[in-house]
Amino acid sequence: MTITEEDVIPILKDLIKIKTENPPGTTIEAVNYLAKEFEKSGIQTEIQEYAEGKANIIAEFGENEKTVIITGHLDTVPAGDEGKWKYPPFDAIEDEGRIYGRGSTDMKGAVAAYVSVMKKLKENEVKLKKKIIFLGTSDEEIGMDGSLAAKNAGIMENCDFVLIGEPTELKIGIAEKGTLWIKVAVTGKSAHGSAPHLGISAIEGAAKLLLRMKEAVPELDHAVLGKSSLNIGKISGGTLINVVPEYCEFECDFRLVDDNLREQTKKTINDIIEKFNNKQEAQAEIKIIHEIPAIELKEESAFVELLKNKAKELGIHEIIGVNYGTDGAMLVPDYNTPFVIMGPGKLDQLHVTDEYTEKKEVLDYANLVYQAILESFS
Q1: pLDDT value at position 87?
Q2: Which residues of the chain have pLDDT under 70?
Q3: Domain C-terminal end among 269, 292, 315
Q4: Do residues 265 and 150 both lie within one domain?
Q5: Which segments of 53-201 does DSSP mark as H helices, in order?
Q6: Are 296 and 337 in contact (CB under 8 A)?
Q7: Rounded CA gap, 337 and 163, in Å?
Q8: Do 16 and 33 form a contact (C-beta atoms < 8 A)?
């Protein structure tokens, strides 16, 4: 009843070869491929196409009302300049036990593992106390619209647990940082560059605000997530070197270790903007671009303990929090559903050129999940 390399690795390679870069985030080809894979084993699927070319896929095994969801996203970040890749990003080349390609770590390795788990359960017609649902989502990399569509369609209604297969090197993740993205727009007054005193520089105003944004980062030190962070990732402004710039904007990425900090952070930012506007001739306003909550496992369960023990059997003992966001932030908060973030893939392979995953780790993960399901729910 063991999952073999032949059960999982060909699926991983096929998925890598299907481009699902986001943007544009087109995943329907990958969804149709997975539907055919499930059909080979007699597993019926539901395809949720919530936007043109963008879809989730849902596969179920078992008849029980209560469910356990195993979930992974199908979209990837763009490959960038493909000429910089030693191994072409969509060829799924295998070399010395590694599978190279965009999405191999983030996170088609886990998706392939989950598909093999579902197929093996069906092959052996295992009798389970809970229904197992595989949810393959789209748009996780930008906006999480796929997981939102699945939640709005009711997938979480009877869910007792969510296993999120994001890359953790098979460490057990029990928390993830929340995201708060804001845009700060600064407006000044244009003038000729030879007479800057006649204008108001929006760029100089933005520079003053940039230095103050770190004041909004909360100081709380979380047990597994550490400290909140800020990245000022984008700035633009001005038109010509000889024109006093009348407009400048910059974008900030706050990662928060506790969702209770979100409103506090917004208030601090607003206070900074208000004081700036009262003292400066330039004026600023903020716009929230995107926000998702921080989530944390509040209660241990027998299934979580079993996952921990299975990881320990592989020599992995560490309990972690993750800095990145996952679909779990969209799925679990409204229901306070227990969850774990755990999957194959090294953290230093996220979004990099020549991304790879270890073949053995993907296979180990597939068998770990399969055995954990059998031991917990059969």
Answers
A1: 98
A2: none
A3: 292
A4: no
A5: 109-123, 145-152
A6: no
A7: 11
A8: no
